[in-house]
Amino acid sequence: MILKGTKFQLKVWKYLKTIPKGKIKTYKQVAISIKRPKSARAVANACAKNPYTPKIPCHRVIRSDGALGGYSGRGGIKQKLKLLRSEKVAI
């Protein structure tokens, strides 16, 4: 699959593919992992622009306060919750 996005989006999406099924990360943890520690908000925006859901699992990224955040995939936040529960994430 050839991904189309900005350099930053591609970096975020590539990292998201490394998050194992059943695990979650925060936007801040993703930002730190891609060596852009002050970019949590930009990570959230990259997730929001992800046209490749759920193959690129942005549903595995949540807010630092434990809230789900958003989900741009079909079905919105309800679908994000459903995907996480199907992966046995305690949320």
Structure description:
Helices cover 41% and strands 4% of the residues. With 91 residues, the chain is mainly alpha-helical. The protein has one domain: Arc Repressor Mutant, subunit A (Orthogonal Bundle). The chain has a two-stranded parallel sheet with strand order 1-2. It starts with 6 loop residues before the first helix and ends in a 5-residue tail after the last helix. The model has no long low-confidence stretch (mean pLDDT 95).
List keywords for this structure.
91 residues, mainly alpha, Arc Repressor Mutant, subunit A, two-stranded parallel sheet, 4 helices
What is the strand and helix layout of this fold?
Elements: H1 7-16, E1 25-26, H2 27-33, H3 40-48, E2 61-62, H4 76-86
Parallel strand pairs: 1-2
Helix pairs in contact: 2-3
Shape: globular
- Please give the CATH architecture: Orthogonal Bundle
Class from secondary-structure proportions: mainly alpha
Query: Rg to the nearest angstrom?
Result: 12 Å
- How many H/I helical runs? 4
Low-pLDDT residue spans: none
Question: What is the residue-mean pLDDT, rounded to a whole number?
Answer: 95
Look up the CATH topology: Arc Repressor Mutant, subunit A
The proportion of strand residues reads under 5%
Largest sheet: 2 strands, parallel
Provide the helix percentage.
40-55%
Q: N-to-C terminal Cα separation, in Å?
A: 31 Å
The total beta strand count reads: 2
Order of helices and strands: HEHHEH
How many domain modules?
1
CATH homology superfamily name = Winged helix-like DNA-binding domain superfamily/Winged helix DNA-binding domain
CATH class: Mainly Alpha
Strand order of the largest sheet: 1-2
